[in-house]
Amino acid sequence: MSLPVFPIISPDKGVQRQVLSEAPELMVVSFRFEAGAEGKLHSHPHVQSTYVARGRFRFIRGNEAYELAAGDSLVIPGNVTHGCECLEEGELIDCFTPRREDFL
């Protein structure tokens, strides 16, 4: 049995997104960013964890700002406005619970 391979899509300029694995309760997603690319401010009902696999990012979570580098992580509660700017080309591994149906 082979695992499904999900397509790579470009939701915004300089950003590539690929679902790595998913189940109704959890989804793991890779986001690859070019330097200067942004994850625009948004919110969703899902709890999200973000792990910086490589690169440097400036995150906004609610009214707080954070600068994260490879090895750092951040949890974003559901319905909290958040976004990021890529300061140095990199990749984020995000987990969502429950899964993001809109990414399938």
From TrEMBL:
MF annotations from Gene Ontology: dioxygenase activity
Domain of life: Bacteria
Keywords linked to the UniProt accession: Dioxygenase, Oxidoreductase
Tagged with keyword DNA repair: no
Xref: Gene3D superfamilies: Jelly Rolls (2.60.120.10)
Pfam families named in the record: Cupin_2
Domain Cupin type-2: 31-90
Oxidoreductase found in the keyword field: yes
PANTHER family membership: H2HPP ISOMERASE
Protein name per UniProt: Quercetin dioxygenase-like cupin family protein
Protein species of origin: Aliirhizobium cellulosilyticum
